[in-house]
Specification:
five-stranded mixed β-sheet, Heat Shock Protein 90, Helix Hairpins, alpha+beta
């Protein structure tokens, strides 16, 4: 039996694995040959054993493949999400660009209209004032010509005042700074006042002004001044764009649902379907020779609709070229007397539009 070098403890031979057997043989050889580098051989054998033990199993192999697949799938999902976000950003940018272009066109049209609407009456005011001041047509005393010039100055000044008031009003409405002075009033009387105010304009234009259903209307909760302003603007627009010999009709009724409906219809030039939206946009006007021949900066309908909506109502328009236009204003049943005669309901109607 061989003896082992005293530098190493005895090694049992029961080990069954091949690498340990090899180590035992190496140790035996080391006992016979002291010059044999036992430590280097053991390190080499252990290194081989370690590498053999690290060989990945099938489960580890498939697990690694699955991990890579999941990683790849996540990368694809990230790319798809980034692509969708980029497309959404592009769509938002395109929409914003369209709005910006539309706003730019509206601004250009507004400046063009304002240039005409302000400069023309100002020229009249300045020109007629100079004629009177310098007595170009002779002495001003007892000269009827100057009376006509003074009338023209008054009309031009009032037109300027209306333009400026409209601009200030739409600015207040869009800024949310217009407060309604609400109370109970008779809409039939208010409609009568509006009709009388429009009679002179209708007569000068050769247009017939008709009224229907204004008697026995229930009281309304709202701002009477703004109510009249809505109807005056609608009547003025209808008369303005109705040729001589045409008819403008103002009608009112309480609908089955309780809403108060007021309509202003005309037999005028009408509006193309494609232009219905634009006429409701501030400072926009239909591009036609007939429209351009009439004063205005395109604020009548937008202001009217905004005032109606402040009352919780709605303003809609139907039109056909060459046939005419009908504008319908509805005030909700909550504001009409037959529903809101109870003070508590009046308070509810008041709060409804706040």
């Amino acid at each position: 039996m061989h003896t082992v070098s005293p530098d190493f403890p005895p090694i049992k031979r029961e080990a069954a694995s091949t690498p340990i057997s090899v180590i035992n043989r190496s140790l035996t050889s080391a006992g016979e040959n002291p010059q044999f580098e036992v430590r280097g051989e053991i390190s080499h054998m252990l290194s081989l054993f370690s590498k053999r033990q690290k060989k990945p199993s099938s489960l580890q192999h498939y697990g690694e493949q699955f991990r890579r697949s999941v990683k790849h799938r996540r990368a694809q999902q990230t790319l798809l999400a980034a692509k969708k976000e980029a497309e959404l950003t592009a769509d938002t940018t395109r929409v914003a660009l369209l709005y910006a272009e539309s706003a730019d066109r509206a601004k250009t049209e507004f400046l063009a209209n304002m240039s005409h609407e302000l400069r023309t009456p100002l020229n009249a005011v300045i020109g007629f004032a100079e004629i009177i001041e310098n007595e170009i047509m002779g002495p001003a005393k007892d000269n009827p010509i100057y009376v006509g010039y003074a009338r023209d100055i008054n009309e031009a000044g009032n037109h300027l005042l209306r333009v400026i008031n409209d601009i200030l009003e739409i600015a207040k409405i869009e800024a949310g700074q217009l407060d309604l002075r609400e109370d109970v009033f008779d809409p039939g009387e208010a409609l009568e006042v509006c009709s009388k105010m429009a009679v002179e304009q209708a007569e000068n234009a050769g247009v017939t002004l008709e009224q229907k259903g204004q008697d026995h209307l229930p009281n309304l909760w709202g701002d009477e001044g703004e109510f009249q302003k809505i109807l005056i603007k609608l009547l003025s627009n209808a008369i303005k764009f109705t040729p001589e010999g045409g008819t403008v009709t103002l009608a009112a009724e309480v609908e089955d649902g309780g809403d108060l409906k007021v309509t202003v219809s005309d037999t005028g030039i009408g509006i193309a379907a494609k232009d219905l939206d634009s006429v409701m946009t501030p400072f926009s006007q239909v591009d036609s020779t007939y429209c351009r021949s009439h004063e205005g900066i395109g604020l009548g309908l937008p202001i009217s609709r905004a005032l109606v909506e402040l009352h919780g109502g709605s303003l809609t328009m139907e039109s056909e070229e060459g046939v005419g236009t009908t504008v319908t204003v509805r005030f909700p049943a909550e504001r009409v007397e037959h529903w809101s005669h109870d003070p508590q309901n009046l308070d509810t109607a008041h709060k409804m539009v706040r």
